[in-house]
Specification:
This protein is α+β, with helices and mostly antiparallel strands and 273 residues long. The protein contains 8 helices and 10 strands.
């Protein structure tokens, strides 16, 4: 649980950048970030390091997100209704959210992404089970995976996440989860465009061309071990409040070099050891 919290807090920083400008010389619309790590991938079902999670947060919004004060607020979710017993979360989704290829964002994108984690037996399936998100049916799916059993479509459909219609998502839990809204801002609970993901296959999330987002930025360039660049998503539902035009991540940078770049005004953020 400590690792989960650490990764969650680590990736919140990127979400605050939509409302601020960089200090990189006279260009206050570009924010440059130095990282000792590389981006593993942009697959929200697999990425488990702080650098990858920051990159995912830049290009994809989930049901909820953090504002510049660190508060959890709605993102793709327009509203949430919680049943009296606290076990059923009904989300009404915004209709003005679009994938960057123009496809509408729908409740089915969440169902596909969550089921995919179990279908692919990705490491994040433990986040859905009892004691964490406590999604109905997730513990049973986890137990089958741990026992070496193959999951059927019926198994996956038994999980408590349903698209009631294109813009209504229903999530059922086995117990009341007081931190559920915070969990929904973590990338493994994000959505994925099924058509795009299936077309990319094993390449999904492994290059700038193999990721499709709905967030504040679009990845334009990614050179592993060197640099990742993002541009403002002009079709983002809240783009008028995104002050940055460009986000730059300098990857696998020596802390000493990063510190020198920061002192020279060439970098806006650098980890100091």
């Amino acid at each position: 649980m400590k690792k989960i919290l650490s990764l969650f807090l680590c990736c919140l920083m990127i979400l605050t950048l939509t409302g601020c400008g960089g200090s990189n010389g006279d260009d206050i619309t570009t924010y440059t970030y130095s990282s000792e790590l590389d981006i593993k991938n942009l697959d929200s079902s697999d990425a488990d390091d702080g650098c990858s999670l920051k990159a995912i947060h830049a290009v994809i919004d989930g049901l909820t997100k953090t504002d510049k004060k660190g508060n959890i607020v709605n993102a793709v979710a327009k509203s949430e209704e919680l049943s009296e017993d606290g076990l059923t979360h009904t989300y009404k989704l915004r209709k003005d959210f679009k994938w960057t290829n123009g496809d509408p964002v729908t409740a089915h994108d969440f169902v596909y992404a969550w089921q995919r984690i179990f279908r692919k037996k990705r490491s994040y399936y433990y986040m859905f089970v009892d004691g964490i998100a406590s999604i109905e049916g997730a513990q049973e799916l986890s137990d089958k995976i741990d026992a070496g059993e193959e999951l059927t479509d019926d198994d996956l459909n038994s999980m408590g996440v349903k698209a009631i219609d294109d813009y209504t998502l229903e999530v059922k839990t086995t117990v009341r989860v007081s931190f559920f809204d915070e969990l929904m801002a973590f990338p493994c609970f994000f959505l994925i465009n099924e058509k795009f993901c299936e077309k990319q296959g094993d390449k999904y999330g492994k290059s700038a061309k193999a990721i499709l987002g709905n967030g504040a930025f679009i990845m334009t360039n990614w050179e592993p071990g060197s640099i990742a660049e993002f541009k403002k998503n002009e079709s983002y539902y809240d783009q008028k409040h995104v002050k940055l035009n460009k986000l730059v991540m300098k990857l696998v940078q020596n802390p000493k070099v990063a510190a020198q770049s920061f002192m020279a005004g060439e970098t806006d953020y650098a980890p100091i050891n």
